[in-house]
Specification:
The chain has helices at residues 36-49, 68-75, 92-102, 122-128, 154-167, 200-208, 232-251, and strands at 26-32, 55-61, 81-85, 107-110, 136-140, 147-148, 181-184, 213-217, 219-220. By secondary structure, it is an alpha/beta fold. The protein has one domain: Spore Coat Polysaccharide Biosynthesis Protein SpsA, Chain A. The strands form 2 sheets. The protein has a 7-stranded mixed beta sheet, with helices on both faces. Strands 6-9 form a two-stranded parallel ribbon. The two termini are 32 Å apart. The chain binds guanosine-5'-triphosphate and magnesium ion.
């Protein structure tokens, strides 16, 4: 089901009657730490929307003590699932990059395991990359039609707002904090990245100097099961990440405008 009707993006997600067939090999990269109970529903929803052919769901698990990798391996009997287990490293952004490096797929989708990101919007993200000028397609909470689950407490909203304001001078993208996006593997310079923390989309946009980022509105849902990994240490890491990105932007040679 090609998503060609732009108006459809304003409507809430719905499972399409027909499964979407990818045009190029596609990997859906999902970083996990203790997400045992989310993987089954995630795989079920993804493959309710996408034809399996040409698609792999690549779980990048940091040796979760809750047995997430065992669940991923069990799901591989039913779905095109692979699981990469990292024993010596922890971190969301580095896990996503490891997944990107680990697959041969031409199109790469990053999404969280906890069902915050609606799998039903994956076709719209991939369709956006059909335009060769588009460098990245983001599932965005902060464009018209997008929204954040109303159960977010005030401090969480404030936190998210401050984090976005701090990054605003770096990009015009509204939801540069997003973990739900699609890119082309050929467009990535993985060696140029220095990911830390959570904000992998921001890292990709700033390091690549991307300006043509499409934002597809999504309804961001509260996590379905398991516990958050977002803590104070992660917020400090974000400030360190921002400092690195500002240093990068300020020191890079002037490049011709695209
Ligand atoms: N591989 C790996 N994945 C991680 C790590 N930390 C978080 N993740 C995953 O990254 C995704 C986002 O983490 P969340 O804990 O949901 O963070 P959040 O979305 O900011 O916060 P909540 O949704 O409120 O929990 C989830 O799929 C996590 O399992 C990590 O250190 N390594
Ligand atoms: Mg989450």
């Amino acid at each position: 089901m090609p998503v060609s009707d732009p108006g459809s993006r304003d409507r809430p997600s719905a499972v399409p009657a027909e499964r979407y067939r990818v045009r190029q090999p596609t990997a859906i990269v999902v970083p996990t730490y203790n997400e045992r109970d989310n993987l089954g529903p995630l795989a079920q929803r993804i493959f309710a929307v996408l034809e399996r052919e040409g698609v792999e769901l690549l779980i990048v698990d940091d040796d979760s003590p809750d047995g997430t990798a065992d669940v991923a391996h069990a799901l591989a009997e039913q779905y095109p699932v692979r699981c990469l287990v990292r024993k010596a490293e922890r971190g969301l952004a580095t896990a996503v990059i490891a997944g990107f490096a680990h697959t041969e797929a031409a199109l790469l989708v990053s999404m969280d395991a906890d069902l915050s990101h609606p799998p039903e919007e994956i076709p719209a993200l991939l369709e956006s990359l059909g335009d060769p000028a588009v460098e990245m397609a983001i599932g965005s909470r902060f464009v018209p039609g997008g929204r954040v689950d109303l159960h977010w407490p005030l401090h969480r909203r404030l936190n998210s707002w401050v984090a976005r304001m701090l990054a605003r001078p770096l990009t015009r993208t509204k939801d540069m904090m997003a973990g739900f996006f699609a890119v082309r593997k050929a467009g990535l310079k993985l060696g140029a990245l220095r990911p830390i923390g959570y904000k992998i989309a921001l890292e990709l946009i700033v390091r690549h100097g991307w300006t043509n980022v499409v934002e597809i509105p999504i309804a961001f849902a509260d996590r379905q099961a398991g516990a958050t990994k977002l803590n104070m240490a992660e917020q400090w890491r974000y400030l360190r990440h921002l400092a690195r990105l500002y240093a990068h932007v300020l020191t890079r040679k002037r490049q011709p405008r695209e």
